[in-house]
Amino acid sequence: MIQITAQMRVLVAIEPVDGRKGIDSLARLCQEKLAEDPFSGCVFVFRSRSGTAIRLLSYDGQGYWLAQKRLSKGRFVWWPEAAGPTKPLEAYEAQLLMAAGDLSRVRAAPMWRRVGVLK
To answer: Which of 48, 41, 55, 51 lies closest to 4, judged by CA?
Structure first.
């Protein structure tokens, strides 16, 4: 199981990929197209060309995890836009994407950040 924590780096590939790609092909894509290290522990999120499935790839130090969610109806309508090949997401955004499929329609609590030290 891929567990996404707040400390993890999450990168979404902007361009859709062939839904038949497996672990080796996606890891190669991370290196060649995204210019990222697939062994970094980062969670890479890919969308199929049809928009009906997303895949998550992550290396945990022992091997790769590959998770897929395919919608039974509809498509993943929300997808980020960026000038580069990837866009970073916060961990909670990645979790919302997997659960709800459309971040633009989901309201989440704002990110908690430490504002100062109490005395």
So the answer is: 41
Phi then psi dihedrals of residue 48, to 5 deg: -70, 160
Amino acid present at 89: L
What residue type is 95 in one-letter code?
Q
Q: Report in angstroms the alpha-carbon separations of 29 from 60, 78, 98.
A: 18, 22, 21
What's the rounded Cα separation, in Å, for the pair 103 and 72?
Answer: 18
- pLDDT means per 10 residues in the chain (119 residues)? 83 94 96 95 94 94 94 86 90 82 63 62
H helices within the chain, ranges in order? Answer: 23-32, 91-100
Tally of residues, the chain: 119
d(CA 79, CA 55): 13
